[in-house]
Automatic annotation (TrEMBL):
The keyword Disulfide bond does not apply. Residues 78-202 form the HD/PDEase domain. This is 5'-deoxynucleotidase. Catalyzes the dephosphorylation of the nucleoside 5'-monophosphates deoxyadenosine monophosphate (dAMP), deoxycytidine monophosphate (dCMP), deoxyguanosine monophosphate (dGMP) and deoxythymidine monophosphate (dTMP). SUPFAM superfamilies: HD-domain/PDEase-like (SSF109604). Homodimer.
């Protein structure tokens, strides 16, 4: 039960942000080791050489508590986590239209949805406002995936095969050359568009997130583009029904025209 002083000390702990993991601030050059040093040892356990997968499992929890930072710029501080985003993606991917489904490895697509942002558990959700160039972002994510699927689980019984599959699926998504990876990239953008509209509706006309609508331009597959157009039409009807629209871009672009060149390059990335 603990002594009275111990209980009194525990009562002083602030639990309000216990479910939120901020992006780790470390010195340059960024490395996964520096991020790991910011995590208390008792939260992870043995990092390398252990035959237990628990350290890996504990790290995965960070995907549940790391928020998607793009929304936080608009004051949505209790928005979706990275894991929230990947979960809905995995379900959306199972609804591949009949004209597309025969060309897909559905099992791999679902796994890809659940793996594609895994590196963000240490890297964090980097946005254009963070000033991190795309090659550097890619380097951090690659280093993190090499660590997660290498040293961290190398001694776990059966871990090597699972880690190799995770690493290969993540790389396929990054390369974006196969129909499966292109499909998941489109699903990624579709999930973002859905969330954009849902947050705007909850904002009751006070929240213009239209800058995110530009991801529609980078979608590749006609079947998923049709979904995107449907949700954007839904968005248009919502803004058309709002009496007092915040800003003049409520339907067709948010503040996209005001983005910097770096931000535009980020939103136009593959």
């Amino acid at each position: 039960m603990g002594s009275q002083p111990e209980r009194a000390e525990a009562s002083k702990v602030d639990l309000s942000d216990i479910g939120y993991t901020p992006m780790a601030q470390v010195s340059e050059p960024w490395s996964h080791d520096k991020v790991l040093e910011t995590i208390p040892d008792d939260e992870l356990g043995e990092i390398s050489g252990s035959r237990s997968p628990l350290a890996f499992f504990h790290l995965l929890e960070r995907l549940k508590t790391t928020k998607r930072e793009g929304w936080r710029r608009f004051g949505i501080n209790r928005g979706e986590s990275i894991a929230d985003h990947m979960y809905r993606m995995s379900i959306i991917s199972m609804f591949a239209p009949p004209s597309l489904a025969p060309r897909l490895d559905m099992g791999k697509c679902v796994k890809m949805c659940l793996v594609h942002d895994m590196a963000e558990l240490l890297v964090g959700d980097i946005t254009p406002c963070d000033g991190v160039a795309k090659p550097e972002k890619s380097r951090r994510e690659t280093e993190t995936m090499d660590f997660l699927t290498g040293k961290l689980v190398s001694a776990v019984p059966g871990g090597a095969a699972t880690a190799a599959e995770l690493r290969a699926i993540w790389q396929e998504y990054e390369d974006s050359e196969t129909i499966d990876s292109q499909y998941v990239h489109d699903v990624d953008k579709m999930e973002l568009l859905l969330q954009m509209v849902e947050y705007e509706k909850r904002g009751r006309g006070t929240l213009d997130l239209g800058e995110f609508a530009n991801v529609r331009r980078k979608m590749m597959l006609p079947e998923i583009i049709a979904w995107a157009d449907e949700v954007l039409q839904e968005r248009g009807r919502f803004w058309g029904a709002v009496e007092h629209v915040r800003g003049e871009h409520g339907i067709d672009g948010g503040v996209a025209a005001e983005r910097s060149e770096q931000q535009e390059a980020y939103y136009q990335r593959d």
